[in-house]
Sequence to fold (467 residues):
Amino acid sequence: MAKNFTNKSPSSAAKRHSSSKGRRPQKRHPQRTHSKTHAPKGGDSVRNGVFQVLKTVFKGKQTLDVAFTQYKNNFGGADESRNLAFAYTLAAGTLRTALFLDGLSHQHLKKPFEADSDQNIILRMGIYQLLFMDGVKDHAAISTTVDMMKHNRLHHLSGVTNAVLRQIQRKNAEHPIELAADMCLPSWIQKEFSADYGDENVDVLAGYMLEQAPVDIRVYQGAAPEGSTALDGLEKAYRLPDGTHASSIEGLNTGGVYIQDMAAQWPASLLAKLIKAKKLNGPVVDMCAAPGGKTLQLLDLLENTIYAADLNPRRLQKLSENLAHMPRKPFTVACNGYTPPFAESSIAGLLLDAPCTATGTSRRHPEVIHLRQPADLEHLQAAQRKILEQAAMVLQPGGVLVYAVCSLFHKEGEAQDVWALENLALKPLAFDVPAALKTAHTKAHTLRLTPEHGCDGFYIACYEKQS
Fold:
C-alpha cells in the first residue's frame, strides 16, 4: 500500500535552484544547511584523505564513520575544524550523490570508468566539488582533481578528467544542472520504494533522504541545552538548533546527555508506556541491545529488571561502558536472537530492534545505499521472522512486544506486521501519538516514520501476547 506523503513536491534539498541564463550558477549543497563549507588548508592532503576514506567505503565495504576515523589524521593541521568539516562534507556528499554523479560523467566518457575504481572515485569527488560545494572555486575543483589523478599514478587519465570536468562546468553555466534525487538510489532500491510508496513519491522520499539530519538528544541529568526544542510525545527528548555540532553539547559522554534520533527514541518510550499502563512487574528484555541507547532509556523509564541481550560480546562490553554512569545497571546477556536463554512465558516486555538494512539511517550513514544488496533484504526479512518467533515465545501472556526496524522497506516493516499477526500468538496493542505524527500512525498499533517526518526512517509495531 502506497504511503500518502503530505508534501507531493520534491524538497528544496532535492533540486538545485535555477539561476538566470548568462550568470554563473550558485553552487548549492544537496542538503539543507545554513553554513558554507570552505576549502581546506593543505587541500591536497585533505582531499587525498577523503579519497582514502571513500576507497575504504566503496571497496573495503566499511562504514563512513569507521573509514573517517581511520584517516582522521589527514584532516588536521593549522585549521583542523575547517578541514574536518570540508572532508566530511565532501565524503558524505559524494557518497549520497555517487550514482547521480556517475550519470553525469557517463555523458562525456566514451568508455565510462568502472564504478568503484580509483579513477571513478576521484572523478566523483571532482564533480561534486564543482557542482555542490560553495567554498570551492571551479578552477580549484578541476585542477585538484587532475592533480589527484596524477598523484595516484593515473597520469594517463588526467587529460580526459580535465575534459570531462570542463564540459560539465560549461553545461552547468549554460543551464544549471538539477540534482535528480531518485537517481542517487540504486535501481533495486528505487523499485522497492516504488512498490511501497508509489511511483510518484520515489523522488520525494529520495529528496528527504539527501537532507542533513538534525541532532536529537535525550537528557538524563540536568537541564536541556539552551535553544533546544522539546520533542512532543517523548520524555526528556530535545532537538538542537540547526548546525549544532556534537562536540559542543555540554554533558555528552559524561552521563547527562546522549544523542539519539527522535525515531530511535520511540520504541523504548512506547514499550515503557505500555508496560506501565498494563502494570506489568516482570523482567524486560532489550533484544539486539548494543550500543545501549534504548537500554539506557528503559533503565530511566522503568523500575523493572532490565536485560540487555546482544549476539556480540564486544558490543555488549561497549554497552556496559556506555552505561557505566547509570545508578542502575542492566543484566547483560550474550545470546543469539534465534535461541534466547529466557524461559518460555517469562518476560513481561520485550523490545526487538531487529537487524535490518538500516536504509532509514541513510542521512547519517550514506554508505548504506551502496553497501546493501537485494539479497541482504531477503536474508534479513527471514532473520527478523525467526527472532520474532522466539520473542513471542518467551513473552508471558499479556506481555508487551515492540518490534522496530530502522528501515524504509515495507518488507521489513508492514509485511512483517501482517506475518506476525497471522503466525504468532500476538494481537495488536494500540497507542497514541502527537498530532505531528498522525500521518505516520498508519494503524492503531504501528508507526511508519520516514525522513519526511524530520527523523530517521523507522517502522514500529506494538503487540500483546495472547492469553
